[in-house]
Design goal:
7-stranded mixed beta sheet
Length: 400
């Protein structure tokens, strides 16, 4: 019985374990470690005996011994350390002890969790550096998210509120679905973990990989689990039995999970979404993100100008927004970058509205290139999901 989890990603260690499995086929190889996805070379021949992880009470006692927090942040440190082994938590707390600023100390503990999540190849801790202020439009969705913050309060359970389960955000490509999913972690003040279905299906046993990934997510909860373009991982594929088993396992987990995991999933190709995925109980809400209205396009343009050090008040933002009919947020961002290149190449001292218009003339929006597909997507959203935008004067691609 070996505790090898700190070295399980080393190629020479994996080769040695593979050779050991081949030589001792009559004896099981048992690895004692936290939840992890085994390398495919040994996945069939080795078994994992899960290493118990410290609970909140144990971590609280460790914090009292190592940190002695008196600034009211003890509970935040406990939440940040959930999912770490005892030794990992102790190491993180000792590092945090040398940092006087509470926010920076908490960040050091979360950094240790990033290392812990590397035990599972399907999961990645993502820097949640996006706020709702970085997202133009989508006021209904943003208001809904802000209201969910209250449900994570300790008094919410006593009041009868269930913990939020998550949201499925569908819609036109480039209109902010991934951006608002990343901003969710900042709104809820929770770590953001990304689930990669490509890694799930690359594992020797995808069913085992998704099982261990969901167990690992629950171990580090409360957390936001981000599943980008979920239809690519769980879209209909009747000919693949492994795919069907992974799909079934993930659907069951979505329905039955008890840990505070808020799932933020996005989808572009809604026709590939299995109907079971959007059923109530798996997500709290299904939102549809349409092409932005003129008002939203102005907000998006102002956001991207501000990110690049420009004052939006110095540009004819509202006029430009009206000219960008059928444009997505990603295309507006691309226009701003193109305009900056234009101005710099011309050795201009400052960016102007004419530079923006020149860059716009070089771009053909996706809604023009794939008009029929975008219209079909918008028709789906009108009937099957809640609008993410407060402005309901949506675009009509086929009318005046």
């Amino acid at each position: 019985m070996l505790d090898l989890h700190p070295w399980l990603t080393e190629p020479r260690v994996v080769r040695a374990l593979r050779d050991l499995c081949a030589a001792k086929r009559d004896l099981p190889l048992v690895l004692v470690m936290p939840m992890a996805t085994l390398p495919p070379e040994i996945d069939r021949d080795a078994r994992v005996l899960p290493l118990p992880l410290p609970d909140a009470e144990t971590l609280g006692a460790l914090i009292d011994a190592e940190l002695a927090r008196t600034d009211g942040t003890r509970d935040a440190f406990v939440r940040a350390a959930l999912g770490l082994t005892f030794d990992e938590a102790r190491r993180a707390f000792r590092v945090a002890r040398s940092v006087p600023d509470a926010d920076e100390a908490l960040a050091r503990v979360i950094d240790e969790k990033r290392g812990a999540l590397r035990r599972n190849a399907c999961l990645e801790l993502v820097d949640a550096d996006v706020t709702l202020g970085d997202v133009g439009g989508l006021e209904v969705l943003k208001s809904w998210l802000r209201s969910r913050v209250l449900a994570f309060d300790g008094g919410a359970r006593a009041f009868g509120l269930a913990e939020p389960r998550g949201m499925l955000v569908c819609g036109v490509q480039g209109c902010g679905k991934s951006l608002v999913s990343k901003a969710t972690a900042r709104v809820l003040s929770l770590p953001l973990v990304r689930l990669d279905f490509a890694e799930v299906f690359a594992a020797g046993s995808p069913e085992h990989a998704i099982h261990e990934a969901t167990r690992a997510v629950e171990a580090v909860a409360p957390v936001v689990l981000w599943v980008d373009e979920i239809e690519k991982g769980l879209g209909a594929d009747a000919g693949d039995a492994r795919h069907a088993r992974v799909f079934g396992a993930f659907l069951t987990w979505l329905q039955e999970r008890r840990a505070p995991v808020f799932v933020a999933a996005t989808a572009n190709e809604v026709e590939r979404l299995p109907p079971e995925l959007a059923r109530r109980g798996r997500f709290d809400e299904v939102f549809f993100v349409d092409l932005p209205s003129p008002m939203e396009r102005a907000q998006i343009l102002a956001v991207h100008l501000g990110r690049r050090g420009r004052d939006a008040a110095e540009f004819p933002v509202a006029e430009l927004a009206r000219e960008l009919e059928h444009w997505s947020g990603a295309e507006i961002e691309q226009m701003v970058d193109g305009a900056l290149f234009h101005a710099y190449a011309q050795k201009q001292t400052e960016l102007t509205g004419e530079h923006l218009r020149a860059a716009a003339r070089e771009l053909i929006p996706l809604a023009t290139l794939y008009e029929e597909k975008i219209q079909a997507l918008r028709t789906w959203g009108m009937n099957r999901a809640r609008r993410a935008s407060a402005d309901r004067r949506t675009l009509d691609l086929f009318g005046d």
